[in-house]
Amino acid sequence: MTQPSGDSALSVSARAGTVVGGFVALLYAIEVVDTVVSDRLDSHGVRPRTDEGLLGVVFAPLLHGGWAHLVANTIPLLVLGFLLALSGVRTWLSVTVIVWVVGGLGVWLFGDSNTVHIGASGLVFGWLVHLIVRGIFARSLRQLALGVVVFLVYGSVLWGVIPGRPGISWEGHLFGALGGALAAWLLAPRDEPG
Fold first, then answer.
1. Prediction pTM value
2. Which of 9, 39, 55, 87 has the greatest number of beta carbons closer than 10 A?
């Protein structure tokens, strides 16, 4: 976790909270609109291997199958998103984009036919895995320690990458998690050749 020089821990925390809180508020605003239009937005998720479903890669993490679905994602989004955003808004945005694209394309390529995948849980899994493994790629003891704590608190949810529960997009969880690992590798500081 690095912070720009001159920024206090309080301002870094405030910025992280604002970014993540704003993102979650956007998800709630979209769910309000979806409720008003009778859940019509939910059909715009990822539909594997269809032309219109490819557009769902863009929209799926913003859509939820009702209030219970959104509420279930809220606390992990706030906690994991905040921890990630403490590394900077640019890092949060970079990881989020990688997880969003890898997760969405993975579902589009490998998801079950005739299904629609929606929800931000792919982001949750991506942020979770990123926070757990980034210390390995960055060779940072502080990030490794945070990864261990995050794993101890949230690691059990990783069982969600295994198929089995109807109506749960294990593919979204799996490819979101893979996106988080990829982001950790891609964004890790590189040693300059000597």
1. 0.91
2. 87
